[in-house]
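Wed. Picked up where I left off yesterday with PQQ-dependent sugar dehydrogenase. The coffee machine is broken again, so keeping this brief.
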Amino acid sequence: MTGVLAAAVLLVAGCSSGGSSPGGGDGSGGAPSRTAGAPSPSAPDRESTPPAKGSVKVLRTVAQGLNSPWGLAELPDGALLVSSRDQATITRVDVKTGRKTLLGTVSGVAPEGEGGLLGIALSPGFASDHMVYACFTSASDNRIVRMLYDPAKPAGEQLGAPDTVFKGIPKGFVHNGGRIAFGPDGMLYAGTGESGRRGLAQDRKNLGGKILRLTPEGEPAPGNPFPGSPVYSYGHRNVQGLAWDDKQRLFASEFGQDTWDELNAIKPGANYGWPDAEGRSGDPRYQDPIAQWHTDVASPSGIAYVEGSIWMAGLKGERLWRIPLKDTRAAAAPQAFLTHTYGRLRTVAPAGDGRLWLVTSNTDGRGDPKKGDDRILELRVS
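Structure written out below (tokens, as returned):
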């Protein structure tokens, strides 16, 4: 393991040059002042440093037989909602029995390549409004919608019609981003891709290659770094992982092209370099990543913060990475778990009490599905 880490992982801040490759988005290969209320990665470092070495124990398989699962959201009763990228459906999974109940099909989704029904999130007011948010690829763009969830209706009819809250995010066969999450400030964050058109990432007027920060109604959030704009950070290639630590600091995972995948600490208004920088550059114009990996051992999608570390799912890398944090730095070398054990890994989410939900991604057209794929696993981590 030590040799692999030394060769494959550099704890750095930055970038190297490279062009766009159609297959790289999903793991097939290759500052303005901050405002109050926005999560800031510069909060005082009060937390203790997690140990350099952690552990992972697979507790059980929660569910199996899922088709192209992508997004995951936990209901107040502990059940899980999971989206199917290619089938455009949302399914409820009972975590005690593994029973799957179809909520419904999301209308307007146009699956193609890396696009389709992607990330999902529950409204901050879900207990009263019962709204499920989703990011999906339509015939014309990527967009964010919300739908009423009514479990009293028959299976297959429990989702209301999509109400579009934000649209116009560029779509492509690759690099559609798609992860959405409500932050500790109650605002809606969305990771977008540059859709294979590299120049979009540096254009602050374009929505591609960005992290967006919106109100639940889809308006630019108050306190955003560029007044009147939903753009929170830019210069990204394809963001598919968003997570906050216990000090409300935002982190994001990002696909590189041929050389470096990244884990970034996100600063409002900052430029993360793509396409001029991929991985570590040291160029003061760009924010360097807190950790980077060669693309064949990572190609990261979802991330989660648990037990003082960021946990990052690897698609092409087929492993789960642990990155212990101190402040907004990696406190020690990233550590790999479950290497080539469950195939491609798409999504991780906190499950409480030092546990993680982990979703595999072997039926997405790029994996090698085995009997039972795709599945949701429950892990205990430290």
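Quick read: The chain is about 5% helix and 40% strand.
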